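Ticket 4471: requesting a sanity check on a complex prediction with FE2/S2 (inorganic) cluster. Repro inputs:
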Amino acid sequence: MTEKVKVCKEGELKIGSRKVISRDGEGEIGVFNVEGKYYAVQNACPHRGGPVCEGQIQKEIKADWRGPGNRIEETISSIPTIACPWHGWEFKLENGEHIGDSKIHVKTYKVIIEDKNVYVIC
Amino acid sequence: MTSDYIVDSDAHYLESLPELADYMPDKNPFKQRFKRKPNKMFPSSGYPDHYMYGRIQRDEVGYLKGQMIPEDIPTAMEIVGANAIIVITQKMLSFARLGGDDERPELIANAYADYMLDRIIDPDEGIYALLVLPYQDPERAVELIDRCGEEEGFVGACMICGGPEPPFGNRKYDGIYEACQEKKLPLVFHAGGASLDYFYIKGYEKFIETHTLGFLWSNMSQLVSIVIQGVAEKFPELKIIFQESGILYVPSLMARLDAEYLKRSSEAPILTKKPSEYMSNFYYGTQPLDEPKSTDYFQSAIEELGGASQLLYASDYPHWDYDPPSAIKSIPFLTDEEKELILGKNAKRVFGI
Ligand code: FES
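Returned structure tokens:
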């Protein structure tokens, strides 16, 4: 059974801001507006249960190696991630995947806009 | 190949420096220096006597008398019970102590290569060697690989782990890895650096302390650098082997690196999988084989590091803590097939013997 939980009115959650909503007995969900796109993540880190949604949002660092003898250049990609503030486990906001191990996920949710409101589908 | 075919993947030979000097170019001034004052040219291994002042003996070969002769190698093979043997000489194990100029390492490594080909290597008799690389000057190391890497008796190349700076994950060694990969030369990282005098923390009292720590430290420090700097990602066909630190440190380092990596993935973006997944594709010499109390623990440790397919029996003969093949044969949980792999089949496959 899916549930539609209201987060806020459309436009209330400004670019770069976040809102953590709680559901009775179901834990918290963080909703983020990153560059105009909404993401929703469970506020419980799969590592030790840390408040991942309080973490810093940034872009994933990628490696660019141009062959033997060259330094591994690090570049900032366009993939938004959130890092759990407790120990740094870092997840892609898009699908919750840990950037170092695709077998580890933080739960993510779909965000929809309906009747000028923002909802999370749980 | 019979099922009890044994390959000793790491054994040693003690050459004399004046003998090596015969293989140096006549015009190089170092040649005479090496001939006349060898001990001035090459730091000793320092205190103490690894053989505990006569308590441990190796009278069957000339090692403790200060020099071995080529005929000692078949004797060593007989004592160990090996059908094939892969040798590195004693002086080359001390390579990391050549910490000043990069000319002596280059000169000695080249002389060693020619000496080994001329005097020691004999594939018909199962006697092989590793090409020890003067990593202090990576370009010259690549030249040596080009010159000798395809000689039949050199079944792999070798870098000594006792304290290279920067460590082996650094891009300055990329040329070496590229050349080894291209020539399909497996690359052995061999522990080194444990004497009281040369240990990186001064003040330990006994060799038992620095030997326990030193060989672990030297291999672990290079493993960490190699794995995190993505050597296996950059050179995926390169066969990587770590020798002479036992095996139990491997699963422990895997667990620690994985935990660090999950917390700090942004610092190692070149990696596409967890450190342990690279490490379980490396090979590990078994000597000195750890002897944990719990058999279950030992069994799961071997599974963790990749299983019997990743282990290579090594004697380390004639060194003081050598392992005969019975060290492997007596492991209770290994099947006969797994023992065969560790004692010979893996080394045959990895080194192309
Ligand atoms: S609890 Fe989130 S990283 Fe440890």
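Notes from triage: Residues 69-351 of chain B form a domain with the TIM Barrel fold (CATH 3.20.20.140). Leaving this open until the requester confirms.
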